[in-house]
């Protein structure tokens, strides 16, 4: 192979890992096999692991992987920045060629690499995996995901393909386009849709996690649905939303009671029940609206701070092509 392969001959697997010490030993052999498959197709293949501030020995494990295989590149963030930032950090470091994004827990099968590459070769810029089955996910996660895709589909102007995660291959130009989007609240599914180009979906069976636990609980998923992890300073603003919601609900109940009482026994102070009901209801609605404005204001505030999306603790590029692979 020549010293520098052209961009259409390079592929980097980008894998964000946060406390994945249990799953990674099972993932790495599959990743290496995928890299071999890519090389068999004449590609210069690499894998880039991003340690998103793990505290469970993930980094030590990854360093071992890099020692065993010269195609492994490592990036460590200074703390846990979340999956979206970790992926951004990884994609920022893919210098040449396409990138294939995978989960570290084995839920996105690396064995599908040839299918993704084939579509890329056909000229697609954004080849994304669509889940036809979700193994090992509870009723709640399935139901909430279902509802989420419907709501976002109705609200969002840019298309967000259904049942699609971050499992996707991005062509060099799609990658370059994505790199230009530097917003802090990174809702990746939306960003991928925003850049456009020719997209194509590959249906796949989403297996259960190889080991360890999902890092996304119900509340995390809810926040994710509210466009990425919200900053600490927007929380008080959000509370107004819930206070308003609770007040409105209480006002409805109380208003109903006041009106029923007036109808049954008459009201001694004329107009008082209806007045109370209206005041309480309006108060609730106003707080709710304020909260919603707060959501947007909070995000604006976060953007205006212009903080970097992530900070890097350690960066170890891959040293060599497969011929330089250590035993
Ligand atoms: N992840 C990450 N940073 C985080 C949370 C998760 O890099 O703060 C990684 C995680 O290691 C995994 C991927 O994102 O590779 C998906 O996470 P997980 O499997 O917990 O999500 P789920 O599949 O349950 O949606
Ligand atoms: Mg997972």
From TrEMBL:
Which residue intervals define the domain Glycosyltransferase 2-like in the entry? 13-175
Query: What does the entry list under GO cellular component?
Result: plasma membrane
Q: Does the keyword Membrane apply?
A: yes
Molecular function terms from GO: glycosyltransferase activity
**Matching Pfam families:** Glycos_transf_2
User: Which parts form a coiled-coil structure per UniProt?
Assistant: none
This protein's membrane topology, according to the annotation, is: Multi-pass membrane protein
Q: Where are its TM segments located?
A: 239-260, 272-297
Q: Give the UniProt subcellular location, in the record's own words.
A: Cell membrane
Q: Which terms are listed as keywords in the entry?
A: Cell membrane, Glycosyltransferase, Membrane, Transferase, Transmembrane, Transmembrane helix
Instruction: Keyword check for Transferase, yes or no.
Output: yes
Q: Which family does it belong to?
A: Belongs to the glycosyltransferase 2 family. GtrB subfamily.
PANTHER family given for it?
A: PROPHAGE BACTOPRENOL GLUCOSYL TRANSFERASE HOMOLOG, UNDECAPRENYL-PHOSPHATE 4-DEOXY-4-FORMAMIDO-L-ARABINOSE TRANSFERASE-RELATED
Spell out the protein name for this chain: Glycosyltransferase family 2 protein
Tell me the lineage of the source organism: Bacteria, Pseudomonadati, Pseudomonadota, Gammaproteobacteria, Lysobacterales
């Amino acid at each position: 192979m020549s010293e520098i392969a052209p961009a259409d001959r390079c592929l980097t697997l980008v894998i964000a890992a946060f406390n994945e010490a249990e799953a990674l030993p099972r993932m790495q052999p599959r990743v290496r096999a995928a890299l071999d498959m890519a090389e068999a197709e004449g590609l210069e293949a690499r894998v880039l692991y991003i340690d998103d501030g793990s505290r469970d020995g993930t980094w030590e494990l990854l360093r071992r992987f890099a020692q065993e295989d010269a195609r492994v590149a490592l990036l460590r963030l200074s703390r846990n920045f979340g999956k979206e930032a970790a992926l951004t950090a990884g994609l920022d470091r893919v210098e040449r060629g396409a990138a294939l994004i995978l989960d570290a827990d084995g839920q996105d099968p690396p064995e599908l690499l040839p299918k993704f590459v084939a579509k890329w070769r056909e000229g697609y810029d954004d080849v994304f995996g669509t889940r036809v089955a979700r193994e090992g996910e509870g009723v709640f996660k399935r139901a909430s995901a279902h509802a989420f895709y419907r709501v976002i589909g109705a609200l969002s102007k840019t298309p967000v393909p259904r049942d699609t995660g971050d499992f996707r291959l991005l062509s060099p130009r799609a990658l370059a386009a994505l790199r230009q989007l530097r917003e802090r609240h990174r809702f990746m599914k939306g960003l991928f849709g925003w850049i456009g180009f020719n997209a194509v979906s590959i249906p796949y069976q989403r297996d259960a996690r190889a080991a360890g636990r999902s890092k996304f609980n119900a509340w995390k998923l809810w926040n994710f649905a509210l466009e990425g992890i919200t900053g600490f300073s927007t929380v008080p603003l959000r509370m107004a939303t819930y206070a308003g919601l609770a007040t409105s609900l209480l006002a409805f109940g109380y208003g109903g009671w006041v009106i029923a009482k007036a109808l049954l026994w008459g009201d001694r102070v004329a107009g008082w029940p209806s007045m109370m009901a209206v005041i309480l209801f309006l108060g609730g609605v106003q707080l709710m609206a304020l909260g919603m404005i707060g959501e947007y204001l909070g995000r604006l505030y976060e953007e205006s701070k212009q903080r970097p999306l992530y900070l890097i603790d350690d960066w170890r590029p891959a040293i060599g092509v497969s011929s330089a692979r250590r035993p």
